[in-house]
Specification:
homodimer; about 725 residues; TIM Barrel; Rossmann fold; Immunoglobulin-like; 8-stranded parallel β-barrel; 7-stranded mixed beta sheet; about 25% strand; binds magnesium ion; 1,4-alpha-oligoglucan phosphorylase activity (chains A, B); Ig-like_fold (chains A, B); 1,3-beta-galactosyl-N-acetylhexosamine phosphorylase (chains A, B); LBP_M (chains A, B)
């Protein structure tokens, strides 16, 4: 295929001879600099768009040093300290924190700090404690603590070093580089800082006529990233708002919302309102409050960029807190596009599904850095893995653009790699071209994921740090990763949505996660309105798929509150006296492509069938790992976990059809017989995009209607032999 | 050794010639009949004591049929049934129950039955439902249920078949035997039944001058044992009081305690107050109430037995509810002895530690039944396993007697088996004889197990059905099984005991179990008095050993409420944003005899160290399985689980020494270098009883003081080569 466009490449100085050819060959229509590289003089003659990175809230050390009261804040909690048998208790609040990043804000400590007896949950009155010292020597002394109670101090602190720049600085040993400083940030709520941000951006735009796209990295408040006293990462939450706090903001909040926030509203027992916590009223209000502020200020910056005829591209990361790209405010910012790092199919969809922007761009792996582009490195292999992971997501909901980052001069030393990414770029463009710009067809089964966050955190569930592996999430993330490439329109719905009738628009709803987390739902499952809504939905023919500890909260003889729908519950020790006689049914529509054992990852503990009406499809050491249960007109499916694999993705595909009562249609849905192969169907174009997701050649059979996933078309059968990783366009008719 | 006594053998008719020699050889001083055998005429000439089984609460079908209102009751819960979108809800209460065992008591249903909306926990008013039909056709109709709410009916039912006799009947296919009837029981609270019980017992005693010991099997109320509609076991709780209920008893309770019991006080959401549930006030009161009633009536029966110059021996099982052998009332009964089935070291101690009886007797395995005593059976092997399991417990706290049951005529066909049990009897007697009737010495480290039940359920923790394996208990029962053979005086203490200062009398306390259960403690760990007591205990030098989910209840930023002492907590998903850098320390006093991996059984999930002060001794897939933590003057030890093994028992032995800060003494405690060998030390006799617990020969080194576990005696070292299973008496000096 000879096509051009939709691709951004990093360029650098010293390659002027090669650049036109490289860009031409890969079909790049945009270039960018990277950390540590500068655009060459030749750039404006390359006939491509030019991106340049911009940091609104850091980078001018002169301003920062002159306006130390504009530095951003953190709310932090001290260690948990046990009081002695008698006498006062001294708490060194900075224990475990990094003095180069954090400095206690010794302003109005009685207003902003809080001492809590964690043994009783009671707040210690402000006249019961005092603060002495400063910096790392800051000590809170509780005069008369209760003997052997555990205490914590919640304290407000200045951020004395920008988190991302600090990460780059320490990772790259910039302490040996005299040109590097420790960059201090500034808070957009500070009037002088805001004035500086806008005037700086204007000046920057004026001075850079050659730049077409301002790549904001990013706006104001960094996700929560705190280092320990050894300078190692101590706390990371890619969704954390702890670094968005300040007395100024809290006062403004109080004026608007009519109630006063406490330190505990941010510190949250030390959990800092991470996304796994069921969001409190105060935290939900805070997100709303900051989201409106951030989006309003982003709009001001975007307006400036537009005044200069440039585009505003937002990087999805770093100082992105408060933008909430899936929130209602985001459309008001006028941001033209969003670019983010693609680490999986789910993160690809997290970018490509963002509504209200003109385009999205995925930065692919590997980054052109010496760790991979070196002898013994495998850039080709990494590019293949990255492409196979994301291709199935792109085929469902294409990114408008893809790109790479790093040092092009390194990459060109690997010609096979350059060949491969050229193929990838062509393959990517073909989805837009052959698909005629339309989305592939989805099944008419409407699927929802129910959790506490709903649409606002679409594709953002079960993440701690962006796309990293965590022991407690991979067994749930696999559901999202599967769905990112499956032919379903997916809605993320909240419990409030369900209370408002949102299930009427769905055929199958999933509840996925660990008990008590925002993803499972916690005490929402004690609300009879929610329970009745889901039971009614199922009674009318809907499907409920629970993964892990769905609908879980111990009450009235059940742990899974919808055990009546799911047909299973979890043994916590209280019902061991009940005899059970589990019988496995290995043959079922759901498991037709899974002849062997099911990999449920971490598993969900000891799951039992509630009665003989439950079909146990996989039983391991006496525990149910997969079950199917008819309830009224509808159906429940239970999965103990679903780490991503081709087989598990196929299992979920089938489970959704079964839950919807639509298994009779499955044979005509263009689903390949081999679980490692997937198809995106474009009925308007009369084409199907067949992807071999494996690194080996496979043969597979396809069967589907000439009219696509629906319609009256005849059912055609097709046998295909596919090369490793091959994608191929087929004709449906 | 030629000794005699302390052994009970089953005899039967038709073996008159052999009996004297067999009894002589094995040294038996007592004989018994068994189910299906009768004592021969020769019995009175054998020069041994004679036991005969007696059933106070069943066995006279004529009386039972003439007094059907004296039948005992159950409280049972119906299935959980979901209400439809509209219209009434009919609940067939007998669904899943066995008509031959259970019959709804249709008496004053409005007083005794209860309909509960399990979606809200609300009781449905009595005028909101009605009962129709009877027997298996009994239906409760809820006139206007809330749509899609789940309902249950708690109903009172007659026991129309005695549970144990039913079990024997169905297991042995007695339906084919016209001489067998389905025995109906009678309730000791019924005046006519009680009158019948006492007069029958008198008559029985009169008619049996040859009987020396009345073996009560047992008294009045059976443990909870309910069968399903296929006649298979549906619910079993060896500690269950569900079969002790009746309107008569509940009225008497109300008169005495001043409040009215609800059906829910017994049905308990379907959990039926099993021992894993934290006992409610009402259930604790009920135990107290029934315990006093049962013990008073037992005393009356025992008095009759004593009048006739016989002894009263209680079987620990079947209709034993309300006796509570470790309760304060038990001594008032005058029962002479308790006999029970020995299935492990812990069950052996459960029998041998019962206070206030003159003697205890363990019935050993295998039972002389055709299932084992047949071609292909391995009675010798089973005898060895049983003996090795119980010997270590007997060496710590000897049973006064041992015995066997079943058909002697079968056993004599296996001469190697008969030889072996003769050796076992001699070995058993030697512990009494060489030990001079004294208990072996215990370490001066005083050890307690803390749970909701305390002393009343000494050695009875973590059991569902007596000595059976359950998935959720074996990882905890291993602690008890280990302690049953380790040289520690063990106290079982309750949370109320702790509130009353009981920790003052201990050096190390263990908290063992799953979160929320009575064995871990549930909400007791939210009581600051309890937390302060344990923290103070540790601060003054005490040791806390937690196994599984100790001190667990989610509150104020911790799941293990004593995570500050234990140095670990459990990740439930809320603190994943906190970075952890676990480092394993393979070398530690506690693990000196465990070079490899630790078997923690089911494990406890994702356990993390709270800080660098925690020494992680075993780390598996990122989770802590064993940790040691200094806290103040004291120490915490965490174990994710401890299924019984020789290695794990040794590990616990060491953990207790370390927790007590006494590891320096360990080398002189006569602990063999080989974990498969144990020693009971009798300083007064100057002897040690060395046991090779393995079926293979071992060499081991011993080191200990000539004065025993304490004292000023010199430390001696000794090398021993032991035959498989050998026990040997050594001289300490
Ligand atoms: Mg990141
Ligand atoms: Mg208690
Ligand atoms: Mg039993």
């Amino acid at each position: 295929m000879t096509s051009r466009g939709r691709v951004t490449m990093p360029i650098e100085q010293g390659m002027d001879d090669q650049l036109p050819h490289i860009l031409q060959r890969i079909g790049a229509d945009a270039v960018r600099n990277s950390d540590g590289t500068w655009l060459p003089e030749i750039t404006s003659q390359l006939g491509v768009k030019v991106y340049e990175t911009y940091f609104p809230a850091r980078g001018n050390q002169e301003f920062a040093l002159a306006n130390l009261d504009a530095r951003p804040h953190f709310y932090l909690m001290s260690e948990r300290v046990t009081a002695p048998a008698e006498g006062p208790l001294a708490v060194s609040v900075m224990n475990g924190y990094y003095a180069l990043q954090i400095e206690p804000d010794l302003g109005d400590v009685q207003r902003w700090w809080e001492v809590i007896d964690r043994t009783t949950g009671e707040v210690v009155p402000v006249d019961g404690w005092s603060v002495a010292g400063e910096g790392t020597d800051t000590v809170v002394t509780i005069a008369q603590p209760a003997a052997f109670h555990v205490y914590t101090v919640s304290f407000l602190a200045w951020q004395v070093w920008d988190s991302t720049q600090m990460y780059n600085y320490t990772t790259n040993n910039w302490q040996d580089d005299p040109t590097r400083v420790r960059e201090i940030g500034y808070d957009a709520r500070h009037p002088a800082a805001w004035e500086f941000m806008t005037t700086s951006l204007r000046r920057w735009c004026e001075e850079r006529p050659e730049v077409d796209v301002v790549r904001f990295t990013t706006f104001f408040y960094h996700f929560t990233l705190v280092f320990n006293d050894l300078g190692k990462e101590k706390f990371v939450d890619w969704f954390g708002y702890s670094a968005s706090v300040s007395p100024r903001a809290m006062d403004a909040f109080e004026a608007e919302y009519g109630y006063r926030l406490r330190a505990e509203d941010f510190v949250d027992q030390g959990y800092y309102n991470n996304a796994f916590q069921v969001p409190s009223k105060a935290f939900s209000d805070w997100i709303d409050f900051q989201n409106r502020f951030v989006c309003a200020r982003v709009k001001d910056l975007v307006d400036i960029v537009h005044e200069y005829g440039k585009e505003a591209l937002m990087f999805l990361g770093d100082n992105w807190m408060g933008t909430e790209p899936y929130g209602e405010q985001f459309a008001t910012t006028g941001v033209d596009g969003v670019v983010g790092s693609v680490g999986s199919a789910a993160t690809c969809r997290m970018i490509s599904d963002i509504p209200s922007v003109r385009y999205t761009e995925g930065r692919f792996l590997p980054y052109f850095f010496p760790d991979v582009f070196t002898e013994g490195g495998d850039p080709l292999g990494e590019a293949n893995v990255s492409w196979l992971q994301s291709r199935r997501a792109i085929a469902r909901k294409p990114l408008e653009r893809i790109g790479y980052g790093g040092y092009l001069s390194l990459a060109v030393k690997f010609p096979e790699f350059m060949d491969r990414i050229t193929q990838i770029a062509d393959e990517f463009r073909s989805i837009h071209e052959v698909g005629e710009g339309r989305l592939p067809q989805s099944s008419s089964i409407r699927v929802g994921i129910l959790n506490c966050w709903g649409a606002m955190r679409s594709w953002q569930t079960h993440m701690v740090a962006h796309a990293l592996w965590y022991k407690q999430i991979y067994s749930y993330l696999g559901v999202l990763e599967s769905l990112a490439g499956l032919p379903f329109d997916l809605k993320f719905v909240s419990f409030d949505d369900v209370r408002g009738g949102a299930l009427d628009g769905l055929d199958v709803v999933l509840n996925v996660g660990a008990a008590g987390t925002a993803f499972s739902g916690g005490d929402n499952w004690l609300d009879s309105d929610v329970l009745v809504a889901v039971r009614g939905f199922v009674a009318r023919g809907g499907g409920l798929i629970g993964v892990g500890e769905p609908t879980a909260v111990q009450s009235e003889g059940a742990f899974f509150q919808l055990s009546d729908v799911l047909g299973v519950d979890k043994e916590l020790g209280f019902s061991q006296s009940t005899d059970r006689y589990p019988v496995e049914s290995r043959e079922h529509f759901i498991t037709e492509d899974l002849p062997g054992a099911l990999n449920v990852g971490e598993g969900a503990g000891d799951i039992f069938a509630t009665g003989d009406a439950t079909q146990i499809l996989r039983l391991q050491d006496g525990s149910v790992e997969l079950a199917a249960h008819q309830q009224g007109e509808g159906r429940g499916v239970y999965l103990a976990g679903l780490p991503y694999s081709h087989e598990n993705s196929r299992l979920l595909h089938r489970a959704i059809y079964w839950a919807a009562g639509r298994e009779a249609d499955f044979g005509a849905q263009w689903v390949p017989s081999h679980p490692g192969v997937e198809v995106a169907v474009f009925p308007e174009a009369g084409k199907g995009f067949v992807m071999n997701n494996l690194m080996e050649a496979v043969s597979t059979r396809l069967a589907g209607r000439t009219t696509g996933l629906e319609g009256e078309g005849e059912v055609r059968k097709l046998d295909l032999d596919l090369e490793p990783m091959e994608s191929r366009w087929i004709d449906l008719a």
